[in-house]
Design brief:
The chain is α/β, with parallel strands linked by helices. The protein has two domains: 149 residues, Rossmann fold (3-Layer(aba) Sandwich), CATH 3.40.50; 136 residues, 3-Layer(aba) Sandwich (Rossmann fold), CATH 3.40.50. Helices cover 48% and strands 14% of the residues. The protein is globular, with a radius of gyration of 21 Å. The site of iron/sulfur cluster has 11 residues, from helix 3 and helix 11.
Length: 316
């Protein structure tokens, strides 16, 4: 009797993605990579006060606000997916390091939630040790049970989608410079600026005051990295370098700059101090969010800032 081969049915995998930290930079890459492999994803809901409070209860006091928010998002995904994705990204080469939090986040989170039985998934980028992004995705896909060729294909397609998305976003920012309104360059990490509880309310405040917020971090990344060396030839944090480069490119096309950061942030405190010292007379507001400020205090500071710009332009 001939033995019939049993059809192996692969149960669809669902990956949980915290809507925090690098999600705001890599959502298109991740979504398109996983969907290319037929993997479903579930993204946590936008940040609320409850998510922040939950995350704060799991974090050490010294953790930055972004880490606290991240842990709250992870908690909200526990039990709702097969794996929660937390990449470990160390660097993209010389002078292209990520904040050390991105190296530690996976281990810290796995340890924090070890009693829940939740499984986590990671990929490691460490170009200084010959582990680039493509290799990291390849290893992750193979670990999930896919063949090398299908993983390579999914990564290439996802990378193309990501580059196209960045290009579109940069184009959209360029359009904003043409508007006949007060233009404010908002400079900060995407996970602060885009966060529903921290950065979005600030963007809405500016819009209510008839100003246009424009993102310094949505810029052509390669040339921003090169320009950032004017601020400091030894600057090493990838994202801070992109933001600094974005400011240097556009500071003469805006009426004011808002540096928006999370408390306490090592890279921002150093780099923003340099930006403030090298500022060439453009009105600049340094806003450090700790998640506890009521909207009223921040709104008053932004209002005064917009008034100062109005005086400078002779509008008040
Ligand atoms: S760069 Fe700052 S805000 Fe971002 S993870 Fe590091 S310490 Fe936190």
């Amino acid at each position: 009797m001939s033995k019939k081969k049993k059809a192996v049915s692969r149960r669809p995998i669902v990956i949980g993605i915290p809507r925090a930290m690098l999600y705001h930079r890599y959502s298109v890459l991740w979504d398109s990579f996983f969907s290319g492999l037929g993997i479903g994803t579930v993204v946590s809901e936008p940040t609320t006060k409850g998510i922040l409070e939950e995350g704060t209860s799991y974090a050490i006091d010294e953790a930055c606000l972004a880490t606290k928010i991240f842990l709250g998002h992870v908690k909200s995904l526990i039990g709702k997916c097969d794996y929660i994705l937390i990449p470990r990204i160390s660097n993209f080469g010389l002078q292209r390091s990520m904040c050390t939090k991105f190296e530690a986040l996976y281990d810290m989170t796995v340890n924090t939630f070890r009693s829940t039985g939740q499984k986590f998934l990671s990929y490691n980028v460490d170009v200084k040790h010959r582990q680039d992004e493509e290799k990291a995705f390849l290893e992750m896909g193979i670990h999930l049970g896919f063949h090398r060729k299908e993983v390579q294909k999914a990564y290439k397609r996802a990378k193309k989608a990501e580059l196209e998305d960045v290009k579109q976003k940069v184009k959209e920012q360029e359009r904003l410079y043409q508007l006949p309104k007060t233009k404010i360059l908002l400079a900060g990490h995407s996970y602060i600026i885009e966060d529903a509880y921290i950065g979005r309310p600030i963007q809405r405040m500016l819009e209510r005051m008839d100003a246009v917020p424009i993102r310094a971090d949505l810029t052509e990344r390669k040339s921003a990295l090169e320009r950032s060396l004017k601020l400091s030839p030894t600057l090493k944090w990838e994202i801070n370098r992109e933001i600094a480069g974005g400011i240097y490119k556009k500071r003469n096309n805006v009426d004011g700059i808002i540096l928006l950061s999370a408390f306490p942030c090592g890279p921002d405190s150093m780099v923003n101090e340099m930006i403030v010292r090298r500022n060439n007379g453009i009105p600049l507001l340094n806003l450090i969010m700790d998640g506890q400020d009521g909207d009223a205090g921040v709104e008053t500071r932004i209002e005064s800032f917009i008034d100062i710009i109005g005086f400078k332009k002779g509008k008040l």
